[in-house]
Specification:
Elements (H helix, E strand, L loop, with lengths): L3 H15 L3 H15 L4 H27 L5 H8 L2 H26 L3 H16 L6 H17 L2
Helix pairs in contact: 1-2, 5-7
């Protein structure tokens, strides 16, 4: 009987291909290769530092226009104090707060990550979404749970 972890990763790989999600397919493929090559010691490293590494690359990609000098200082200031820029400031502040709440939730109830992964797959396959981060999913889950708590 095939290993259940290998089966799940293979299933995620197939779903990634079927949903045309190169991110999901690549992640599942890399994890499957690590398992098949018996490099299991890397799982704890990925679990501890993978999110940080991913966020570093995400931040790098977002900051590239600044490094290329494609945006002038005056344009940056003008855009930041515009109505859209102020909403972006608010959105960034709220998003980071929600991510922090999501991290707290995952520390208290780490089993919720399975539902978030399944939800992310549903979002990729049916809503054309991008699996950008489990912390945002956890933050939204924390918000939903808080709203439910208010109505109890």
């Amino acid at each position: 009987m095939p290993n259940s972890a290998n089966f799940m990763l293979l299933l995620l790989l197939i779903i990634g291909f079927a949903a045309n999600s190169s991110l999901l397919a690549t992640a599942a493929c890399l994890l499957l290769i690590i398992r098949l090559c018996k490099l299991n010691r890397f799982f704890s490293l990925l679990e501890r530092r993978g999110l940080e590494l991913g966020l570093i690359f995400l931040m790098l990609s977002v900051l590239v226009p600044l490094a290329h000098d494609n945006i002038s200082y005056t344009d940056l200031v003008r855009k930041t104090i515009s109505p859209h820029g102020l909403l972006a400031l608010l959105g960034g502040a709220l998003a980071t707060h929600m991510n922090g709440e999501g991290l707290k939730l995952l520390k208290l109830d780490p089993q919720l990550i399975f539902g978030m992964v399944i939800g992310s797959i549903i979002g990729i396959v049916f809503l054309g979404g991008i699996p950008i981060g489990p912390l945002m999913a956890a933050g939204l889950t924390a918000l939903f749970l808080e709203v439910i708590y208010w109505f109890k």
